[in-house]
Write a structure and sequence with these properties.
- The protein has 160 residues and is mostly helical.
- It is built from 8 helices and no strands.
Length: 160
């Protein structure tokens, strides 16, 4: 058996693992970053004050409170995403929290790297909003997700 054949067989039999890997890798940035909102609170407040959008941030609310709130969303929603629990809802919560952070903190000169990293993360969240958790998820174990309507089954949705 050639290496290519072995690789094809391996990929075919393990085709569900990328769902889990994708969710866990994506969720780590929210879990670690969200914990940073608490552990490195003072340093993050200083970075917020240096943002060219600092006045906009202040008009939205107290920067310290906004930091606590975003951390309080990032950590539990990140954990939920990692384990595939309420994946669509947690992805929406993360998206709604990350989008204004991206605009106010990274839409500035010299921030192209973090800006496009966050844009990629937002795109990954959109993937989970539309596609659900994928394999190896609590959503699937408890049939909390519903697959799109399958026309071959007479229009009935299938639980997955």
């Amino acid at each position: 058996m050639t290496s290519i054949t072995q690789l094809k067989r391996f990929l075919k039999t393990n085709s569900s693992f990328p769902d889990l890997i994708f969710r866990v890798c994506l969720s780590l940035i929210f879990i670690v970053g969200g914990l940073g909102h608490f552990v490195e609170h003072r340093q993050m407040l200083e970075r917020m004050a240096e943002s060219p959008w600092a006045s906009t941030i202040n008009s939205i609310g107290d920067p310290s409170a906004l930091l606590w709130i975003s951390g309080a969303v990032f950590v539990p929603a990140g954990v939920a995403l990692a384990v595939g629990f309420m994946t669509r809802l947690s992805s929406v919560a993360l998206f709604v929290t990350l989008a204004p952070i991206t605009i106010t903190m990274h839409l500035a000169p010299g921030h192209a790297g973090p800006l496009f990293k966050n844009i990629a993360i937002l795109g990954a969240l959109v993937h989970f909003v539309f596609n659900g958790s994928g394999a190896f998820a609590i959503d699937r174990a408890f049939a909390l997700t519903v697959e799109p309507t399958d026309r071959s089954s007479g229009g009935r949705a299938r639980a997955s």
